[in-house]
Amino acid sequence: MLLIITAFTEISADFTDLFVHIRNKVLSSHDDELIGGITPEECAQKCLEGTTDVPEGECLSFDYRKVVGRCQLSRDNKDTAGTALDYNSQFDHYEMKDIVGFFSEHADQALGGHDDVIVTPPTVSPRTCALRCLLGEGSLSVGSCLSFDLDSRGPRCMLSEDNQNTAGQALDSNSRFDHFQRSEFCIPDPCVHLHQSCTNQVNGFTCTCDPGWEGDSCDTYTGTITPQNCADLSAMGIQTSGTYHVGHPQPFQVSCDMDTDGGGWTVIQRRQDGSVSFDNTWDVYVQGFGNVNGELWIGLEHLHSLTSQQQHELYVYLENWEGTTKFARYGTFSVGDSTSKYTVTISGFTGDPTLTDDLAPTITHHSINGKMFTTKDQDNDGNDVNCGATFGPSGWWFPPSCGLALLNGQYLTGCSSSSSCTSAQGIVWKNWLGYRYSLKKTVMMIRPSGFPGKYKI
Hints:
Elements: E1 2-4, E2 19-26, E3 33-35, H1 40-49, E4 61-65, E5 70-74, H2 78-81, E6 86-96, E7 103-110, E8 117-119, H3 126-135, E9 147-151, E10 156-160, H4 164-167, E11 172-182, E12 196-200, E13 205-209, E14 213-214, E15 220-221, H5 230-235, E16 242-246, E17 252-257, E18 265-271, H6 282-287, E19 289-290, E20 296-297, H7 300-307, E21 312-319, E22 325-335, E23 344-351, E24 373-374, H8 387-390, E25 396-397, E26 405-406, E27 428-429, H9 430-433, E28 441-448
Antiparallel strand pairs: 1-13, 2-6, 3-5, 4-5, 4-6, 7-11, 8-10, 9-10, 9-11, 12-13, 14-15, 16-17, 17-18, 18-20, 18-28, 19-20, 21-22, 21-28, 22-23, 24-25, 26-27
Domain Apple: 13-98
Pfam families: Fibrinogen_C, PAN_1
Domain Fibrinogen C-terminal: 221-450
């Protein structure tokens, strides 16, 4: 559905759209204020609106420590600090975009008689006025401010729901003012569902909605299509973990986790009791096997279908026999089609601070990124031995070393801290408990990146 917006409706914005998101990087030694128990979206809003320690207009970037949910506001970015960002998998760095660049400037001119809201930030500048216009102020909701005049004598920001086009009048010459007319309407993105696109128009934006979604901002589910994944189900208001049907045009049954980190996760693999053998052939791994309510492998064809339409993230839950749990998370995860032998793309590791990246480490000899899938009857790993036949046996994306994480290995109950089993035959996360320890439980889950910020009804 194509909708051209001439009169704005109120928009629930994700203010991280106003920042460049740089994964696994941090601006070291530039944390001017620390705020705990907060989301990246809330942190972005703090940076934009200002706080007691970092007032409005002073914040240029923030670092977000993902595991503990801590926001670190900074008056600098990498350019003003004159330093490069440091690699740290526990953090993501957010740098504010050129906000003033979202407006066209008309020096020594004003839009007379259209000062709907007048504001005086602590420091009046094009940047602080532009922020007030974008964030909304008073009677002007987010997205409804089309222009502003900067009064240098006041000094003050004069925000308007009109521009010279909607007002039908030319700008007045006045050396006291500079006029700024908004030209970027898709940042922050007003189209709230991930399956959409936003296009700038002269006086607003166009949302192109996917089938099954409608409304000015693609925010209303019509119920006319089958949800494509568990995140879609969550967007429809389903918040209970369980078994559901997803996919179009041929729906299939999946297990949805609606509890972990906001929910919306589609379970692609689960090991918990050894009730299902993972010693299977290529065709079985392609189609999938197991019990959707218990141990399962969703199938390579379903994995490709789920991850080929939009970017996904991967969550890996790990539990040992002593009751200790850990998790790994990857910002990017996708699986190719059958012609690629279901090649996996995976990167952006975060997770438990004490857990090492065993799926896509920087040492490429051990990384599964870019590797084809291998089973005991179809060897695509490029090694001297068939890793799938040697370890498990099982199906997996095996790197040159055959891997550090072997999550589809045999379910072995005697491999714990007190007694070890044959090396690399069980369910293994090597750099946590070693090759001879087989884990009690693992769950692999995926969901579209950016959830839940752009998934709303």
